[in-house]
Write a structure and sequence with these properties.
Elements: E1 9-14, E2 23-29, E3 32-38, H1 50-54, E4 69-71, E5 91-93, H2 96-114, E6 119-122, H3 129-143, E7 148-149, H4 157-166, E8 184-188, H5 192-195, H6 197-208, E9 212-216, E10 229-231, H7 238-251, H8 257-263, E11 264-265, H9 267-274, H10 279-286, H11 290-301, E12 306-310, H12 312-315, H13 320-333, E13 343-346, H14 353-358, E14 365-366, E15 370-371, H15 375-385, H16 398-406, E16 412-416, H17 420-423, H18 427-436, E17 439-444, E18 456-459, E19 468-471, E20 476-480, H19 493-503, H20 513-523, H21 532-537, E21 540-541, E22 567-568, E23 587-592, H22 608-613, E24 618-621, H23 623-629, E25 636-640, E26 645-652, E27 660-664, E28 677-680, E29 687-688, E30 692-699
Parallel strand pairs: 6-7, 6-16, 8-9, 8-12, 9-10, 11-22, 12-13, 16-17, 17-18, 23-27, 24-26
Antiparallel strand pairs: 1-2, 2-3, 4-5, 4-18, 14-15, 19-20, 20-21, 23-30, 25-26, 25-30, 28-29
This protein binds iron/sulfur cluster (SF4).
The site of iron/sulfur cluster has 14 residues, from α1 and α6.
Keywords: 4Fe-4S, Iron, Iron-sulfur, Metal-binding, Oxidoreductase, Repeat
Organism: Loktanella gaetbuli
Enzyme class: oxidoreductase
Length: 702
């Protein structure tokens, strides 16, 4: 980057990648971001990971969309057949006027001729809170139903379902930084060193000062080096292992009776339920010996202050809600909630998945998780948005919407900043659905795999090109600011949404994200005392008791937001993953992210440094498995499941069990989700990305 002091201006903003929400300073020279530094945000205290520090130059990539595009009349049939850098044989450039006319016209025609319920929307956890609010309002007000969702469905929907059910609130009960005050912490089904790298630095510091770090994961990971206990359990056996740990706490009388009596309900049922999950009987199922399970139970229950962190390894299962219920029960029975150094923390994935969910970008809840099924709630939104605006029926989720296309129920979609043609399970099915739509409008910064299927593409803005608030995994609301303008004719997302709303006939008069925030905050008690002006000057953790209170990093010191004020124990049974290995597909496939790449790769594979470090699709196998296959590290393997087949370069990795393969999902040339199982958790409706039966064979070529 040359002379690091040589810049024209510096702009404080928030990293666009993970839910940690690191604050950054963008150094701009000659209209371009020259480099990035970490600043003293509440979550990161000047720290950054490789993505935050070096992952910004995708915004200057030549593939950026700079003009609205309309599918040509003579375009080939919809499919995965568009070059993102050379697409004029499929799409033609258009003016904003023509493109918006076509985009809104197609959606409103479906609404007016076939009914509003034939149109669905996916909003984005990469956009701001204001944009998420506008998007869900646009679908609800513009089409009269709740068929609006976003990628939370693919990440922590089951965690949120369990938290809402048992503690009455979907957010974290304590910030991850609270680990500073803990003496024991469990990290389960998460790989923070790769996925929440700055949070991981706090976890390592915790271990370095003597905190006991209990890591539980079917795959080994870098945090293992800092762990007092590493439980590499058999994939798909979380409930068996966690119930066995809880069984020890019950049978050895290690539970906190006073806390249970004062703050919980349904303990007797939980206690009775746990009796049969003895460490001996569960040991064979989960692969962890009984004495280790006892030791972990005693260590956790004996802590003065203990926290539980979890990630997609818990949530992305057909029993993801049960997994989270077990973790909640563990914290409740030991009284490890509501004090410094205690709490439950599902590590949120996207930079604004917390905020987008809070803003109502989900089919069953309006902003602040107010249920669409409540007449009182609907009446309050109708008073603001117009009589009869909010439908009483819960809408369809991401996976249900894609199925709804196949079933002929959904005929048009508006997709903003999401990439279901890469991110959804069983991609052949998802892509076939997108190709069936009568009218698809995609709003994005690149011609993504999903945009391949679009009728109209609206060029949007990257994080560094617009104003808006975002909310991180810690419930900290922070201000994102523009450092550079959008390229060419691209526009800020909020402007496009307002234009779309007006063309759909909505009486929208917002002229700045500030106006949107004011309306949104008026519907969300969680944002009481958090004004736009306040956020211009400081990050605020919600909830906050007044304009001078920086916010509550720890919740539920004195009861829970449930009827009666008590949290609930919900017993969980052992349920096997939807698909089991067999003679044809003898191994287990699990998917996830890598440190350098973000989700479907649209941004990070166009970031020079990150792509240089990790340029190639890969999977990880145990060296002995590779040897048995006759494959050298760096050679190729073909992975086949009941849904698809890909060929990919294989790495040797001792952290992966011998009967398992780990596959990152950022690479379109070997798309992991061609293989994944679309079976969903019946409550959270989240697919089982973490477990599928797979066959691995030697291949000669990619
Ligand atoms: Fe960005 Fe997350 Fe890295 Fe922080 S830890 S710099 S928010 S990717």
């Amino acid at each position: 980057v040359g002379d690091r002091k040589d810049f024209d201006k510096e702009v404080a903003s928030v990293c666009p990648f993970c839910g940690v929400g690191c604050q950054i300073s963008l150094k701009v020279k000659d209209g371009k971001i020259k480099y990035v530094e970490g600043i003293d945000g509440p979550a990161n205290q000047n720290r950054l990971c490789v993505k935050g520090r070096f992952g910004f130059d995708y915004i200057n990539h030549p593939h950026r969309l700079t003009k609205p595009l309309i599918r040509r009349d003579d375009a080939p049939a919809k499919g995965m057949n568009v070059d993102p850098g050379n697409y004029l044989d499929v799409f033609r450039e258009a003016t904003w006027e023509e493109a918006m006319d076509r985009a809104a016209g197609g959606l409103s025609e479906l609404r007016d001729t076939q009914g509003g319920q034939t149109v669905a929307g996916f909003g984005s956890a990469k956009c701001s809170n204001e944009e998420a609010y506008l998007f869900q309002k646009l679908i609800r007000q513009g089409f009269g139903h709740n068929n609006v969702d976003h990628c939370t469905r693919l990440c922590h929907a089951s965690s949120v379902a369990a938290l809402m059910e048992n503690v009455g609130s979907g957010g974290v009960t304590a910030t991850f930084n609270e680990i500073e005050n803990a003496d024991v912490a469990i990290v389960i089904g998460a790989n923070p060193v790769e996925n929440h790298p700055v949070a991981a630095t706090y976890f390592k510091q915790f271990a370095a000062r003597g905190g006991k770090l209990i890591v539980m994961d079917p795959r080994g990971q870098a945090l293992k080096r800092h762990a007092s206990h590493m439980l590499q359990f058999k994939p798909g056996t979380d409930v068996a292992m966690l119930n066995a740990i809880c069984n020890v706490i019950v049978t050895e009388g290690l539970f906190d009776e006073q806390y249970i009596d004062g703050y919980t309900e349904n303990w007797d049922a939980e206690r009775e339920h746990l009796k049969r999950f003895t460490p001996e009987s569960m040991s064979e199922i989960c692969g962890i010996d009984a004495e280790t399970l006892r030791d972990v139970a005693r260590t956790f229950a004996g802590a003065q202050s203990a926290m539980i962190f979890w990630g997609m390894g818990i949530s992305q299962h057909t029993y993801g809600t049960d997994n989270s219920r077990c973790l909640i029960s563990l914290a409740l029975m030991t009284g490890q909630i509501g004090r410094p150094g205690t709490g439950l923390h599902p590590l949120r994935g996207q930079n604004n998945v917390q905020g987008a969910s809070d803003a109502g970008l989900i089919p069953m809840y309006l902003p602040d998780y107010q249920s669409v099924t409540s007449a009182e709630v609907r009446a309050s939104f109708d008073a603001l948005w117009g009589a009869g605006t909010v439908a009483a029926e819960k809408g369809l989720t991401v996976t249900e919407i894609l199925q709804g296309i196949h079933d002929g129920q959904i005929k048009g979609m508006f997709i903003q900043g999401e990439n279901p043609a890469m991110s959804d399970p069983d991609l052949d099915h998802a892509r076939a659905g997108l190709a069936m739509l009568d009218h698809l409008v995609v709003q994005d910064i690149f011609l993504t795999e999903t945009a391949n299927f679009a009728d109209v593409i609206l060029p949007a803005s990257a994080f560094a090109e617009k104003t808006g608030t975002v909310t991180n995994t810690n419930r900290q609301v922070q201000m994102g600011r523009p450092a550079v303008p959008p390229p060419g004719e691209a526009r800020e997302d909020w402007r496009i949404l307002i234009d779309m709303g007006q063309r759909l006939g909505l009486d929208w008069t917002y002229s700045h994200p500030r106006d949107v925030y004011a309306e949104m905050a008026s519907t969300m008690p969680s944002l009481d005392h958090i004004s736009w002006d306040r956020l211009e000057h400081q990050a605020v953790t919600y909830p906050t008791s007044g304009p001078d209170d920086p916010g509550q990093s720890i919740l539920f010191a004195d009861g829970f937001p449930r009827e009666g004020g008590r949290a609930r124990f919900t017993p969980a049974d052992v349920i096997a993953p939807d698909e089991q290995p067999d003679a044809e597909y003898p191994m287990v496939l699990t998917t996830g992210r890598q440190l350098e790449h973000w989700h479907t790769g649209a941004m990070t594979r166009r970031a020079t440094v990150l792509d240089a470090v990790e340029p190639q699709a890969n999977c990880s196998l145990h060296p002995h498995t590779l040897r048995d296959l006759g494959v050298e590290a760096g050679g190729y393997v073909t992975l086949s499941t009941r849904r698809g087949r890909i060929t990919v370069m294989a790495r040797a990795d001792r952290a992966v069990a011998r009967d398992m393969v780990f596959l990152p999902f950022a690479y379109v040339e070997a798309a992991a989700n061609l293989l994944t199982n679309p079976a969903i958790d019946p409550i959270g409706k989240i697919p089982e990305f973490k477990y599928a039966a797979v066959r691995v064979e030697k291949a000669s070529q990619p």
